[in-house]
């Protein structure tokens, strides 16, 4: 009786496990003493993450996101920004003291955010750029947008220009040809303080 119950259990179990096979096929498998049970796994549906799409460069240009309105192009409006920038640099350099090493200040300035800095074009392959002084309002990969004391917005290319900036007696020079990076990319770049001095 025990063997009959076992046989019935096995047959019932195999029917549930292999619903697609007929009884004859199951018996045939049993006679060979080799049974491969079919396994049906439920496919897990992966939820796709929604990517936050930003504006394309073309859309930003069409929306004029980075354009400064003419009525806002006044030097005095941005003087408080310059004061904030000076305090930011002092904190970055742990206080600009007379005994502070110039190369340390230079290395910090090369990676610092320059929005609000007053810069002067000291050398240029294009003579008309030399002498332009003003507050940096926007920095892009290849150009600086500078507002001058005469309330004129100048777009100065970095290529072939040398800029100087001064803070608390420290004067630093920026060689634009070696500086063609976005502000966000500069913080991770290693600059060589000693290099070829060229335009």
What does this structure look like?
The structure is a single chain. By secondary structure, the chain is an alpha+beta fold. The chain is built from 6 helices and 6 strands; from the N terminus they run αααααββββββα. The protein has a domain at 74-188: Ribonuclease P/MRP, subunit p29 (SH3 type barrels, Roll), CATH 2.30.30. Strands 4-3-2-1-5-6 form a 6-stranded antiparallel sheet. The termini are far apart. Helices cover 31% and strands 19% of the residues. The protein is elongated.
Topology of this structure?
Layout: H1 2-17, H2 23-32, H3 57-63, H4 79-92, H5 102-111, E1 118-124, E2 133-139, E3 143-148, E4 153-157, E5 161-167, E6 170-175, H6 183-186
Antiparallel strand pairs: 1-2, 1-5, 2-3, 3-4, 5-6
